[in-house]
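stuck on this one:
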Amino acid sequence: MFIELKDLLTIANKHLEVPCNMEAKSFEYMGNEYPLTEIKPFDLCLTNDSNKELLISGETSLKVIIPCDRCLENVPTEFNIRIDRVLKVDNGMLLDDADGDDDFVNENQLDVDRLIFDEILVNWPAKVLCKDDCKGICLICGQNLNIQDCGCNRHVIDSRMAAFQDVFDQFKEV
């Protein structure tokens, strides 16, 4: 969804509330595509503050389906998005941000989906688990160990200690 900012930027102290819906149904991050679910509509408040700043604010929530970091099962992860952005305005035009943090604005158009995606990135979890005690997958056969134990010998020997393991194996009692 795009919002035209030209009229808002030319009238000082103008306030605008725009009902918004995300048009995108998925989110791409680091070469992976994550489906978006339960996207709540929201109002985006836009205010031209004395022709010096454009204030952008709003709140919404959505869920992103992210694979568990251990077992790769899909985990619906909720994001509560709070938008509070300030963009500099001069003579009815938006000034380029020196940090490049305003990639959601192009030619006086605000890209709502890009704005929300930026907020998702900021809030992206470091680790996603389907449950706290997730057992993961077997490194040998790929079985999800939360569902069933596969019986594979998953004991990993430190290669630096392999010679000692051979000695222990020779003197193992039957």
Notes: Residues 2-122 form one domain.
